[in-house]
Amino acid sequence: MGKAAFLDRDGVINRDTAYIADWSEFEFLPGAIEGMRLLQDAGYELIVVTNQSGIARGIFSESDYQTLTEKMKASLAEHGVVLTEVYFCPHHPTEGQGSYLMTCECRKPAPGMLKQAMADHSIDPAGSLMIGDKASDIEAGRRVGVVSLYRVRSDYDDVEDSDVVSVSSLLEAAQLEVTGRV
Q1: What CATH number does residue 30 fall under?
Q2: Total structural domains in the chain?
């Protein structure tokens, strides 16, 4: 079984400006690309798990999301970073429209996206890590048995847990995980 770095997208990989629908709005956070490259070089599968309620709310379409995702992947590839997979949840339990209005097993903190990734890519959760900026990201990791939990400090710092390492960036989390120091 392999190991994965489960990465939230908005607030970890890119600046979270709420409901990013177009590549022109996408901005990689400082150190994010370097952090992903460091994890990749250390043998981690890079797997993005992202809630995208903008789809559920009708702010942008799944097609818009997929177009942006393909551009993100292409930009990362230009920097030597290859994402193993990107999983997304388009649902919302109270603000969704039509078929997107639902309580599902994929919207974090539910573990559905991580479970699917583990099954699809033979991932060992005990050897994996989760990097997120919200309590829901961390909880999703916990629910599948991920032991290394990193929380990128953000406006969502609503919970501090003794088993979660607080970091300033994806790069800091990668450095701590791979080398034990920043």
Answers
A1: 3.40.50.1000
A2: 1
